[in-house]
Amino acid sequence: MTGRDILSDAGLWRDAAYVNGAWVSDGKAGTMDLCNPATGATLATLPQLDAGQVRDAVEVAEAAFGPWRLRPAKDRAKLLRRWFDLMTAHADDLARLIVLEEGKPFAEAKGEVAYAASFVEWFAEEAKRIRGDVMAAPEAGRRIVVLKEPVGVCAAITPWNFPAAMITRKAAPALAAGCTMVVKPAGQTPLTALALAELAHRAGIPAGVFNVVLGRASVVGGELTANPKVRKITFTGSTEVGRLLLEQSAATIKKASMELGGNAPLLVFDDADLETAVDGFIATKYRNTGQACISANRAYVQAGIHDAFVALLAEKVGALKVGEGFEDGVQQGPLIDAAAVEKVKDHIADAVAHGAQVVCGGATHNRGPLFFQPTVLSGVTQAMKITREETFGPIAPVVKFETEAEAVAMANDTEFGLAAYLFARDGARLWRVSAALEAGMIGVNTGLISNEVAPFGGIKQSGIGREGSVYGIDEFMEQKYLAWAGAGEAKLV
Ligand code: NAP
């Protein structure tokens, strides 16, 4: 089984763009083949829209905005809830699509679907809790009233590493707020996005409210950022592309949310519980074969626990099972493409050339050209590429340190500030170091930090804004202030 035949519900296999509630298969910019990274097999051939067709999708979303924003919040909530229920009912099929086009193990893909659906459930609830404010005015007889209103048409551009969750983390709050959306999924993972559109359709989300366009990134991104009818751009991906989209959006002064690259440090102090620290590192490092923005990119381990940490880490990493996502017990799938493999090889070669030791792994895996052995490096320093750049692969580099101040200085020595992790038992140290680390999210004695209740996002060049949580919906709302005269306590007539 290679494609559509792997699904229980063949209707979730969609290979056309979704605009105004209809499937668009005549892309004016040709077609693109989609490959399975584990096998290299062609999965589907998808239409590529041209700039005019993307403009049409924006027009459609603008036309749908008026009626959608006027629907009572409770109605929008019900439709989102139905979308959540359908995602949950079809979780296995959604996970199969993720495995096929992205390569992660099936169990992890199921986890991603549950995570993706949790945002739809959460924001279905939050839709009903949108509220403004009334403030005491400085002058007599006045009231200051603050209303929250939806921003308008939002454009979302998403990456391949979490093909479902990176869409729902944006679409759910946008639709809950009363915005409409045009999504451009990553070119390597459109099938999951299109299945989500099919489920949105079945849930009864009206035509034009949620649209998925396909096409060359620069063409689609160029139109979405230049078009003045798009009022907000919400992006998850590399810092490099985020910077470009911000530049392109400057001409039309769009609101922007940016979830960008990371280079997360993980600090292990002498007083940490060894097993908890190693398991925490493996949980954050090897999820999705190291291809997550919040993956710990580099571990700093204090001298007293260093050797025991490296030994236990290598033992556990060496036992990770590599293979195709549908095989039983597989924990590591392929990397997404040949460029990803080259980056991993380059980071290892650079580290070894500068004195690092390969403790386990270190080479491509015999399962196929995009598979790589889970790897541990010791003797790593700040001078190496692997501590300075996001590796996005299954490589765990370990740097030895002596003092807390030294570890925090190395951890913060990066333009990124998405996530950081620390492992220790001393409560005062946990607070002190958490306060000193420059990151939007900190895992304290845990490698697992993502859920729909917590605000997800970075500082420095890792991004702008937050997704999920009670704060996430504000990213899709404007404040409108009414200066209300003649509204104070007066003599009754
Ligand atoms: P990417 O190359 O920046 O691509 C992300 C999205 O941007 C894709 O849809 C891509 O389209 C599109 N894109 C590329 N060039 C574009 C352009 N010139 N104009 C408009 N759109 C353009 O990133 P990626 O390799 O997919 O994902 C990995 C990166 O995402 C890592 O840096 C990771 O840290 C980051 N990330 C961050 C978060 C977070 O929440 N902070 C979460 C996940 C990933 P095509 O696919 O069609 O090229």
TrEMBL record:
Oxidoreductase is among the record's keywords: yes
Segments forming domain Aldehyde dehydrogenase: 23-481
UniProt-listed GO biological process terms: gamma-aminobutyric acid catabolic process
Top-rank taxon, per record: Bacteria
Name of the protein in question: Succinic semialdehyde dehydrogenase
Query: Which UniProt key words apply to this protein?
Result: Oxidoreductase
- Cellular component terms (Gene Ontology): cytosol
Q: Which GO terms describe its molecular function?
A: succinate-semialdehyde dehydrogenase (NAD+) activity
Q: Which family does it belong to?
A: Belongs to the aldehyde dehydrogenase family.
Origin organism of this chain? Maritimibacter alkaliphilus HTCC2654
Active-site residues, record numbering mapped to chain? 259
Keyword check for Translocase: no
